[in-house]
């Protein structure tokens, strides 16, 4: 399941706070989702050089990604054959939503924590519910996710299977 929209690049440097999470991925995989870095070889002041890009998806989610040139033990990695370390910023700070747009499992992301160990981004409760009206007219819950983007993609996928059933989305508590 993947998002269908292509994000637009927005000027970088809007995030001065610490990143929300770090993850490892192949550079080519990330470029396929957000495009190439808009700035390269920036100096991180201690962790080596990095490339960065900030994008906005059609839903309004903004994501900033920095790919570090160094891996463990500050060794320069070959990004064509080894996964790179990425830091992610996002507004709103919903890692599940970010993971959906990057087509990555959310559990590949390790949230950053503040000095008290509190995560800077948490996965919000899954309050967006995908519903189905079955052949007998009963409404059945299909699944719950954190954001409408992912819910809409799930509905599209089920509808594409061609079953003559109605799928719809509601937000828990707002019905
Ligand atoms: Zn979205």
Compact overview of the structure:
The protein has 2 domains: 8-111, no CATH class; 128-171. The chain has 3 helices and 10 strands; from the N terminus they run ββαββββαβββαβ.
> Which small compounds were modeled alongside the protein?
zinc ion
Rg over CA atoms:
18 Å
What order do the SSEs take from the amino end to the carboxyl end, as H and E? EEHEEEEHEEEHE
How many helices in DSSP terms? 3
**Category by helix and strand content:** alpha+beta
Uncertain spans? none
List the topology elements.
Layout: E1 8-10, E2 21-25, H1 27-34, E3 39-43, E4 49-56, E5 62-68, E6 84-91, H2 95-102, E7 110-111, E8 128-133, E9 139-145, H3 148-160, E10 166-171
Antiparallel strand pairs: 1-4, 2-6, 2-7, 3-4, 4-5, 5-6, 8-9, 8-10
Bound molecules: zinc ion (ZN).
What does this 3D model show about the protein?
The chain contains 3 helices and 10 strands. It is α+β, with helices and mostly antiparallel strands. It folds into 2 domains: 8-111, no CATH class; 128-171. Strand 4 (49-56) and strand 5 (62-68) form a beta hairpin. The chain is elongated and about 60 Å long. The protein binds zinc ion (ZN). Zinc ion binds at residues 57, 59, 61, 97, 101, 147, 149. Zinc ion (ZN) binds at residues 57, 59, 61, 97, 101, 147, 149.
Keywords, separated by commas or semicolons:
2 domains; alpha+beta; three-stranded antiparallel sheet
């Amino acid at each position: 399941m993947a998002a269908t929209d292509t994000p637009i690049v927005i000027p970088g440097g809007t995030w001065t706070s610490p990143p929300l999470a770090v993850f490892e991925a192949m550079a080519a995989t990330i470029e396929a989702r957000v495009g190439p870095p808009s700035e390269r070889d920036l100096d991180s002041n201690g962790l080596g050089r990095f490339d960065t890009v900030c994008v906005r998806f059609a839903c309004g989610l903004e994501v900033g990604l920095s790919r570090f040139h160094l891996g463990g033990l500050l060794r320069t990695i070959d990004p064509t054959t080894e996964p790179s370390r990425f830091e992610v910023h996002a507004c709103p700070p919903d890692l599940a939503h970010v993971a959906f747009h990057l087509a990555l499992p959310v559990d590949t992301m390790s949230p950053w924590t503040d000095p008290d160990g509190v995560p800077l981004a948490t996965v919000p409760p899954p309050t967006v519910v995908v519903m189905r009206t079955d052949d007998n007219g009963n409404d059945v819950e299909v699944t719950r996710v954190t954001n409408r983007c992912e819910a809409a993609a799930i509905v599209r996928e089920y509808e594409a299977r061609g079953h003559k059933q109605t799928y719809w989305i509601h937000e828990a508590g707002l019905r």
